[in-house]
Amino acid sequence: MAKASAAARSDGAETAHQLPDADVAREWLHAMILIRHFEERAGEMYAKAKVGGFLHLAIGEEATIVGSVRAMRAEDYLISTYRSHGHALARGTDPNAVMAELFGRETGCSKGRGGSMHMFDLERRFMGGYGIVGGNLPLAAGFGLSSDYLGTEDATLCTFGDGASNQGTFGETMNLAALWKLPVVFMVTNNQFGMGTALERHSAVTDLQRKGEGFGVPGMRCDGMDVLDTHAVIREALRRAREERQPVLVEAITYRFRGHSMADPEEYRTKEQVAEWRQRDPITLFSDRLVAEGVMSAEDVEALDAEVMARIDEAVAFADSSPFPPPESLYDNVYVLGGQVRGWYSVDERSPEPHRGEDERDMAISGGEAYSHHAGDMGSGPSDEAQGTK
Known about the structure:
Layout: H1 22-47, H2 62-69, E1 77-79, H3 85-91, H4 95-102, H5 136-150, E2 156-161, H6 168-179, E3 184-190, E4 193-194, E5 197-198, H7 199-202, E6 219-223, H8 227-244, E7 248-253, H9 271-278, H10 282-292, H11 298-321, E8 347-348, E9 355-356, H12 360-365, H13 374-377, H14 384-389
Parallel strand pairs: 1-2, 2-3, 3-7, 6-7
Antiparallel strand pairs: 4-5, 8-9
């Protein structure tokens, strides 16, 4: 089980951390259990075809998520990958809104348009999950540049997978972040596999904390299966980014207990390896310590688990009863342009005469012909005259 027990700094020294205040410790455990049961239920809903598209679960990575997010300030920015349900929940997004987004419903946090890979909550400065591997890295640099321009102490935490550290955007972003002294912490979630490819087969440098050094970004490492170690390391990295204007790369050593996505047959790893990592289940490790140190009783943990399960049941019921986005909202927020931009930025050809896509909602509300002849005109395209006016 390579690196599974590495609760270490960059110098390799093992660490032990004191528990936070009792109320804080209980909240951290609650957040991890919430993420675990939410992900398990999301997988069940996917199997029942309630969730469409792709679904990437973070079961096993709860300590990496909660430990890092709890090290942030409310005004800091967080940007994630396509494995982002847990980040939204940890940042404070309502579980109802996250589940409804998975269901593609209008009450979702992205109004049903983002689905699993594109959670978003501007109010909590969760700047979204992104489906493009490595695509969030330059965006994180942009948030850091904004903080620099505005002269604020806002820092940015950018999470990404080990596979993304091989993308061109990684090197480009590290270079600019170091050159411009941007307040960004880049956390590479090393769950041992880039999709189905083992780390040592896709990266020449397997000590991922070192991959930013050539660009001027120093590295640190945390045990991503230990919420306390993750919190301590990310807190120090954020301090350096905030106070010293020094971007930092943190490698979180963790493991996902499920496949890369729900479509993954997991033929690239053994059941024995998964079972070995499960012995370091982050929720079990943390809850056992809380019980051992008298913060909670075993009965308290069971009651908390039952409370979370009831909350997940509520989220599923809410999502399932929420409406789908209405057809006339199809073009809402496709682009946001000022009045200085002329022409059509989207076109709807389903009506007898092509019309601006952005006019769809008004036409439906006013009882226009937007839908009256759809069946007969689905195959017809715009006239030459209409094409010339787009």
